[in-house]
Structures are given as structure tokens and as C-alpha cells.
């Protein structure tokens, strides 16, 4: 079909005015937070129901039209970029909370529900949705699940997939599947729900999700500690975990904090400078927990692991301390950072990080490296900042070589090239560093079963 015929047909499948072709809309909906690929979609479709999604998918199968899902467009691996004339299905209008069960502590949502919207709904009902990250104000649930998003509280609460009771999906064939029926116990063969979580829309599109909720945390308290050495991150973590149940354990380098401070609105936690900082969060449910935390802090200082530290005395102060970590991405954004999201088992983190840092500094001493991440679960964010006098194209070319060195180290440490951001287009050429040839063959086979015509987010994770 000709492009104008495709657009005309799509307009018959959704509500009036919900097929967009204006250049500004194509630009907006055709990209995510990556800057490596120019968006070039054919059209944007804004469905309102699962049935409308199904109608579009069936039409796309009949006419071999490639589809790309679009949520909050906060991805960092180009998993939602439409760069090759695809039709984008944007879930912005599928943004309703459909049902809530206080006794089951579950809430059924459409895929376009924003993370913060779900968090607020849970809080309003005396409960808690614990998956949290910096993009919570714009990221959408469908996208979170399609990349199995993690965030800042994985050490206590796990990844997105751990909170999914059930899914409704439209497969690449156009079938509607209601997966797991929201059951806690359901041992009836393969759990297809988990195939779609983390699949980046390559098997089908998530249209609804039933999410689990939990109790609200009590008196969350934050400590920021200045560390004498990178290896002290593990010393402090192991010491605190023996006594205190942490809800978060983050780290960032001094260079990272300097960018946050220069950006304004945030103050240094204390006068002492340290090469690295750890941020710990825990529930201070009693005076005994606070006494234990202070005793552990003193022990870490006596052992020479911690140079200085501060503990929040109020919710406001706790939120301010969190800004030191959460504002890093925002503060370095003007420098066009090249981002890598990698992981190893927690015990290997110091050696792993040091080895990567040495390799990048050796080959590109003029590149500024910013480290931060969810070190309590082994997830590190490597950000290389573009020199101001270097063209973006030259910078990204050099970073491709950095990828090779970094992923060689990842593979040697049996780690992952993408801890929580997905593969998309940015990392698909490096999939073999984490997945074996046999695994990749099985992944391709699964793709063929659910999407035999290859129309669902083609070119993401791997090429057919």
C-alpha cells in the first residue's frame, strides 16, 4: 500500500483525530531519550482500547506495516525510536486506572498510566507501589514493563516484573491474551506473562497490567556517607545488611556530585570531600533501628571506610539528600552523555568498575567519566561526557570503541550489557556479550512464534 492509503486505513480503526501526521508530532512521538537516531515515522496512532490496538495490529499484518510502541519515551536504548518509516502506536490515551482490589492489594491499569500516577493512587489508598526512578513523572507502565525497569529500590523490592499479577497483551499475530488471570498461584504450564516483560514490544504490545501493591514504608531515613575508597562501598553494604534492612543503596562519584552542585538547588551533604559517596535508605521504625544505624556508621568510620556522613532528621531533609543522586542525569544532560547501563553480581562491583575506569581513561584521557548507580544490586551507570569542542558524530564514533572494551570486561565478569534500560537499537550489536548463541537462537524462535511477519518493533534487540 502507498503511505497515504495506509494513513487513510488507520483513520478508520481508531477515534477521529487520533492518527497524527504533523511533522512536530512525528518528531515528538518517533523518538525516546537517546540522541543517536533521527525519528522518521510514517504516522502516529493513539488507540483508546485493547480492541483498537488489535485492529491496528491485524491491519499491519495484512499489509506488512511495521509498528513501534511508544510510552513515555524516556528509554535510553532507542527501543521506542521509529527511524525507518514505521507506524507508532502511542499509549498516551490508554491512561486509565480500571479497577482496584483492596483485599488483593492489586490495581488494574491501562498501559499508558504514568508511573507517578500509579504511585499516587497507591498512596491515596494507604498502599505503596515501590518501583521508582527519576523518570517516574513521565514514564508509562507499558514501557516500564516492556523494559523490566528497575530503579532505586531494587535491593529491597525487586524489578518491575516482581509486581505484575497479570497482563493483557495483543500479540504480533493480533491475538488478545489475558495472562495469569491475576492469580498468586497458577502452575498451569508456561507463564507467558514473563515473556512479554522485558521484550521491548517485539512479541506484542502490553495494553493492560494488574500490578501488586504493598504496605507503605515507615519513617524512611537517608544517610549519605563519604567513602575513602571504591572498595569501601562493599564494606559498608555488608556491614549494614547484617543489622538493617535497606530499601536503597546507591552510589555516585565526586565528579557526579560536582555536576549536581554546579547545577544549583542542591547543597553538599558535608564539608569533607570524598572520592565516592554512598546513599543508604532504611525504615527507622524504632529508636533501636536508629541506634543500630548510628553504631554501624561509627564502626565504618573507625575502620577507615567512611570519611564523613550525614543522616536525615526529617522527610524534607531525606528528600534533599536524595536529590544528590537523582539530579545527576539532569545535571549532565547538556554535555550529551554517552550512557552505559551495566551490571555484575554485587561482590564484583569494585573490581569491575575500577577495570573499566582504567581502560577508558587510558585510551581517552580527555573524556570525563561520571559514575553512579544502584550499587546495592550490582547495577552501574557509566556516563562519558562529550568534550565541548568535539562534534557529536565523532564523539559517538569513539564511544563505539569504548563499548567494545567495556563489554569485553562485562563478558569476562559474566555480567550484563543492559541491567535495566533494555537493548533496543543501541545495544543489539552487543547482545552476544551477555547471551550465548544458543540463547539468541531461542529468542529468535520465540519472536517467530508470536510475530511471524516481523512487524512488531522490528530492528530492536536483534535483526531477523
TrEMBL record:
PROSITE patterns in UniProt: FAD_PCMH (PS51387)
Residue span, FAD-binding PCMH-type domain: 37-216
Cofactor field: FAD
The entry's keywords: FAD, Flavoprotein, Oxidoreductase
InterPro entries, A to Z: FAD-bd_oxidored_4_C, FAD-bd_PCMH, FAD-bd_PCMH-like_sf, FAD-bd_PCMH_sub1, FAD-bd_PCMH_sub2, FAD-linked_Oxase-like_C, FAD-oxidored/transferase_4, Oxid_FAD_bind_N
Family the entry assigns: Belongs to the FAD-binding oxidoreductase/transferase type 4 family.
Name of the protein this chain belongs to: FAD-binding oxidoreductase
Source organism of this protein record: Marinobacter lacisalsi
Amino acid at each position: 500500500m502507498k503511505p497515504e492509503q495506509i494513513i487513510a486505513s488507520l483513520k478508520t480503526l481508531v477515534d477521529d483525530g487520533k492518527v497524527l501526521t504533523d511533522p512536530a508530532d512525528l518528531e515528538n512521538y518517533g523518538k525516546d531519550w537517546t540522541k543517536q537516531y533521527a525519528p522518521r515515522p510514517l504516522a502516529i496512532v493513539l488507540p483508546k482500547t485493547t480492541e483498537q490496538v488489535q485492529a491496528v495490529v491485524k491491519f499491519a499484518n495484512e499489509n506488512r506495516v511495521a509498528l513501534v510502541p511508544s510510552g513515555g519515551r524516556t528509554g535510553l536504548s532507542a527501543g521506542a525510536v521509529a527511524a525507518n518509516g514505521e507506524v507508532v502506536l502511542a499509549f498516551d490515551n490508554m491512561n486509565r486506572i480500571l479497577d482496584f482490589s483492596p483485599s488483593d492489594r492489586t490495581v488494574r491499569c491501562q498501559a499508558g498510566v504514568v508511573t507517578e500516577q500509579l504511585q499516587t493512587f497507591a498512596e491515596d489508598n494507604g498502599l505503596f507501589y515501590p518501583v521508582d526512578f527519576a523518570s517516574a513523572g513521565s514514564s508509562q507502565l507499558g514501557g516500564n514493563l516492556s523494559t523490566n525497569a528497575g530503579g532505586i529500590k531494587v535491593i529491597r523490592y525487586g524489578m518491575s516484573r516482581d509486581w505484575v499479577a497479570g497482563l493483557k497483551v495483543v500479540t504480533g499475530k493480533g491475538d488478545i491474551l489475558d495472562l495469569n488471570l491475576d492469580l498468586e498461584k497458577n502452575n498451569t504450564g508456561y507463564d507467558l506473562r514473563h515473556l512479554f516483560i522485558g521484550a521491548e514490544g517485539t512479541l506484542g504490545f502490553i495494553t493492560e497490567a494488574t500490578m501488586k501493591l504493598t504496605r507503605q514504608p515507615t519513617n524512611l531515613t537517608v544517610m549519605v556517607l563519604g567513602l575513602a575508597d571504591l572498595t569501601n562501598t562493599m564494606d559498608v553494604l555488608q556491614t549494614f545488611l547484617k543489622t538493617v534492612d535497606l530499601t536503597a543503596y546507591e552510589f555516585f562519584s565526586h565528579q557526579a556530585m560536582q555536576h549536581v552542585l554546579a547545577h544549583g538547588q542542591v547543597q553538599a551533604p558535608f564539608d569533607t570531600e570524598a572520592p565516592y559517596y554512598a546513599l543508604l535508605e532504611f525504615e527507622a521504625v524504632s529508636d533501636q533501628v536508629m541506634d543500630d544505624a548510628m553504631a554501624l556508621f561509627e564502626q565504618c568510620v573507625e575502620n577507615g571506610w567512611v570519611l564523613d556522613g550525614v543522616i536525615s532528621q526529617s522527610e524534607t531533609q531525606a528528600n534533599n539528600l536524595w536529590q544528590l543522586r537523582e539530579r545527576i542525569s539532569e545535571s549532565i544532560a547538556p554535555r550529551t552523555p554517552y550512557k552505559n547501563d551495566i551490571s555484575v553480581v554485587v561482590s564484583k562491583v569494585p573490581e569491575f568498575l575500577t577495570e573499566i575506569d582504567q581502560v577508558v581513561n587510558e585510551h581517552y584521557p580527555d573524556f570525563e567519566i561520571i559514575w553512579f548507580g544502584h550499587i546495592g544490586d550490582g547495577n552501574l551507570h557509566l556516563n562519558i561526557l562529550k568534550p565541548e569542542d568535539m562534534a557529536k558524530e565523532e564523539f559517538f564514533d569513539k564511544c563505539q570503541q569504548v563499548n567494545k572494551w567495556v563489554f569485553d570486561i562485562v563478558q569476562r565478569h559474566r555480567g550484563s550489557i543492559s541491567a535495566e534500560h533494555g537493548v533496543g537499537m543501541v545495544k543489539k550489536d552487543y547482545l552476544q556479550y551477555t547471551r550465548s548463541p544458543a540463547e539468541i537462537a531461542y529468542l529468535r524462535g520465540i519472536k517467530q512464534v508470536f510475530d511471524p511477519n516481523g512487524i512488531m518493533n522490528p530492528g530492536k534487540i536483534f535483526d531477523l
